[in-house]
Design a protein that fits this description.
Elements: H1 2-20, E1 33-36, E2 39-42, H2 54-72, H3 77-88, E3 92-93, E4 97-99, E5 102-108, E6 116-120, E7 128-131, E8 142-149, E9 155-162, E10 168-174, E11 180-188, E12 194-196, E13 199-204, E14 222-227, E15 236-239, E16 247-253, E17 259-266, E18 273-278, E19 287-290, E20 297-303, E21 306-311, E22 319-324, E23 331-335, E24 341-347, E25 351-358, E26 361-368, E27 373-376, E28 388-390, E29 396-403, E30 406-414, E31 421-425, E32 436-444, E33 450-458, E34 469-472, H4 487-493, E35 498-502, H5 512-516, H6 524-539, E36 548-553, H7 555-566, E37 573-577, H8 596-599, H9 605-614, E38 628-634, H10 643-655, E39 662-667, H11 678-696
Parallel strand pairs: 34-35, 34-36, 36-37, 37-38, 38-39
Antiparallel strand pairs: 1-2, 3-5, 4-5, 5-6, 6-7, 8-9, 9-10, 10-11, 12-13, 13-14, 14-15, 16-17, 17-18, 18-19, 20-21, 21-22, 22-23, 24-25, 25-26, 26-27, 28-29, 29-30, 30-31, 32-33, 33-35
């Protein structure tokens, strides 16, 4: 027995030595220095910003080779992938929506790369396939991003994205015959689809320069009208602003297809202007209701000559107003602001159904059309309602519900009778919700602000400070993190892992003031909140720094990068995904200019100083023991261009002198995350969890072992 112990110890030493010998690709450096208000800032990896250059492509291949070699040596990686595949293999579907006498919904049988659009006359019956995105490509990398049925129910207009790009193409399909109509619209981006007569309104740009499709700044957005049968070059420009390159237009119709709503936003402004066209008029004209750009106006629906609108005008937590189309100056508050945030709402024939958020949990209330409160819809447990689908010609409502230990299920209710509610879809999955604990705690941040956090774990674990823990955060752009079910997360939880999700400032959990408290010169609050969340988990014996991993994507990737620069000793593993890592140049690519509302800009001296102080790329230090880092990004990400991650990992690999891995996993034919095929989701999650367990020195155990 003693000899066996010695041999095992020797093997572990050898493995440790092998892990220390990561030979990173040599990343060339160039002599680029920018001057920001007298501060000289070197940018030696500027050449990695060229997403179409051959040397960058070669660099990607070399980085992936090192990363996948490292990951392939993790002994339990394939078993983990097998378990993730098993957990992912269950049918799931969306809440139906009704048009005329037909219902439409999306369903995935389990391991399909993309969910399939169905049409049925009975929401309890499967109906038939209307559109299967899995036929668009063999590898599932072409995703469906938007659909709109024509008012007569005869034509389906749908948008697709290739390899995860924000660029869309719009196609048209005859619903009765299944035949494609020849029209194809390209260079569509940040667009709705709104039918009018025999065509659609959509938004897009003039074609970008060849070779810069995924990086060129998106400027001079336009609203077009396309008539079916005409070539795209004949499409009419409905709205543009030649004097304002950083302005976007988004058009959508109300559920009765009678009113076209046009939302317009500008760089540096947090809200939107709102206009409309009455499509029943002989010659519809655009009429402006609100021309300010610092307040949110989101049309809920149209009913009997009134637009119902959600707004934060003099309402931190939002309120619902009603505007007369005959006299747009006639505005009345229907549902005033309360201590809960209004997430979204929908109209039925007789009611307004409002989804409130209270302490990052859903509360759904039903009101009359005049705003009189009637009742709360009974929800299964603490959780989240993401969709409320209804029409204004009946009182049928569909909604989905999910929580950390409650797989997304679909309910139907007649709003005339709160007790007339039924479950119409519940997934069957290898999972017992009663085995898991879900709790919400409140911790103090650095400035004593109370911040909520959800903690999920398997019942019976010991709070001994040695549990592998994954802390997730975002903290930006008024986006709220709420409870949701994740099949992939089960692979972490069933191994005794703890999952924690912190509701940081910068999000929308407590309205616009909570959002603004984490923006621009106050962005450090977000990082302080996340650090305090980690300290809470450690001080309350959920885990310790040797077993704590942090994860975040996009703005959350920025969060992870900034925090490990500021407090590297708190964490064992860092998992920044598609992150905004270069805070001095983010606004120069694609839609990055629109993020100035949250971040500020390096073109402003005071904001430059704040950005430079926390920018993940610019604050990497030598002689610091960083956590093990696995950066994930994708070569077709044109939201947060992958150069952010490229330059960040190159700098880490250059400056870090320790033995922990500093790796980047770059997905080919993928983008920012939306529409990612199931196979890629499983593969990427496998590598993230395998890396995390491995770096913590934990070997997962599976049921078959």
């Amino acid at each position: 027995m003693k000899h066996h112990t010695i041999i095992v110890a020797m093997i572990l030493v050898l493995l440790s030595c092998n892990r220390n010998r990561i030979m990173y690709p040599v990343t060339k450096k160039v002599d680029v220095i920018d001057d920001y208000f007298g501060v000289k800032v070197a940018d030696p990896y500027r050449w990695l910003e060229c997403d179409t250059c051959a040397d960058v492509s070669l660099w990607i291949d070399e980085q992936n080779k090192v990363t996948f070699q490292y990951l392939s040596n993790i002994p339990f990686r394939e078993k983990l992938k097998k378990r993730l595949t098993e957990l992912f293999n269950f049918a799931r579907q969306s809440a139906p929506f009704k048009i005329g006498s037909n219902y439409f919904y999306f369903k995935n049988n389990g391991l399909q790369n993309q969910s399939v659009l169905y049409i049925t006359q009975n929401p309890k019956e499967p109906g038939k396939v209307l559109l299967d995105p899995n036929t668009f490509s063999v590898d599932g990398t072409i995703a469906l991003t938007n659909i709109k049925i024509s008012p007569d129910g005869k034509i389906l207009a749908y948008a697709i994205s290739k390899s995860g790009s924000d660029w869309n193409e719009i196609y048209f399909k005859n619903i009765a015959t299944g035949e494609l109509i020849k029209d194809t619209l390209k260079w569509v981006k940040f667009s709705g689809i709104a039918w009018f007569q025999d065509g659609i309104f959509y938004s897009g740009y003039t074609p970008p320069k060849k070779g810069q499709e995924l990086s060129q700044s998106n400027t001079y957005h336009k609203l077009f009208y396309h008539r079916i049968g005409n070539p795209q070059k004949e499409d009419v420009i409905v709205l543009e602003n030649p004097n304002e390159p950083l302005q976007n237009f988004y058009a959508y119709t109300t559920s009765d297809d009678n009113i076209l709503c046009i939302s317009s936003s500008k760089a540096g402004q947090l809200g939107n202007a709102l206009s409309f066209m009455d499509l029943n008029q002989t010659k519809p004209t655009i009429r402006t209701i609100f021309d300010t750009y610092h307040i949110d106006y989101d049309v809920i629906d149209h009913h009997q000559g009134f637009l119902y609108i959600k707004t934060n005008s003099e309402a931190n937590n939002y309120k619902i107003i009603r505007v007369s189309l005959n006299d747009p100056k006639k505005i009345e508050t229907i549902i005033p602001e309360t201590n809960a945030v209004i997430k979204h709402a929908t109209l039925t024939k007789s009611h307004i159904v409002v989804n409130f958020m209270k302490d990052a949990q859903s509360v759904v209330k039903v009101f009359t059309l005049d705003g009189k409160y009637l009742y709360d819809i009974a929800l299964p447990t603490i959780g989240t309602v993401n969709s409320l689908n209804s029409t204004t010609y009946d009182n049928e409502l569909f909604y989905d519900f999910t929580s950390f230990n409650y797989p997304t299920s679909i309910f139907r209710i007649n709003t005339d009778n709160q007790h007339q509610q039924e479950l119409i879809f519940s997934p069957k999955i290898d999972f017992n919700p009663n085995e898991y604990e879900v709790k919400q705690v409140f911790f103090e941040s650095k400035d004593k602000t109370k911040v909520p956090m959800f903690i999920v774990y398997k019942k019976g674990i010991q709070l001994n400070g040695k549990n592998p823990t994954l802390l997730y955060g975002y903290g930006g752009f008024n986006i709220s993190l709420m409870p949701s079910f994740s099949a992939t997360r089960l692979a972490w939880l069933e191994q005794g892992g703890i999952f924690a999700m912190a509701n940081l400032r910068g999000g929308g959990e407590y309205g616009e003031s909570w959002h603004l408290a984490g923006t621009k010169l106050k962005k450090q609050n977000v990082f302080d909140d996340f650090i305090a969340a980690a300290e809470y988990l450690i001080s309350n014996n959920y885990t310790n720094p040797n077993y704590l991993a942090i994860q975040g994507g996009s703005n959350g990737g920025l969060l992870v990068g900034a925090v490990i620069n500021q407090r590297p000793e708190l964490f064992r593993v860092a998992l920044p995904a598609v992150g905004v890592m270069d805070m001095l140049r983010f606004h120069k690519f694609t839609i990055g200019w629109s993020w100035v509302t949250d971040y500020g800009s390096s073109d402003n001296k005071e904001e430059f100083e704040a950005l430079y102080k926390y920018s993940p790329l610019h604050n990497i230090q030598e002689n610091v023991e960083y956590p093990s880092v696995l950066v994930t990004t994708a070569d077709h990400d044109d939201r947060v261009v992958p150069a952010h991650s490229f330059k960040y990992i190159a700098t880490l690999q250059e400056k870090y002198k320790g033995n922990r891995p500093m790796l980047i996993r770059i997905e080919r034919k993928a983008g920012h995350g939306s529409g990612k095929p199931t196979t890629k989701v499983i593969e990427e999650t496998t590598d993230i969890f395998a890396f995390t367990f491995y770096e913590m020195g934990i070997e997962p155990k599976f049921k078959t072992e």
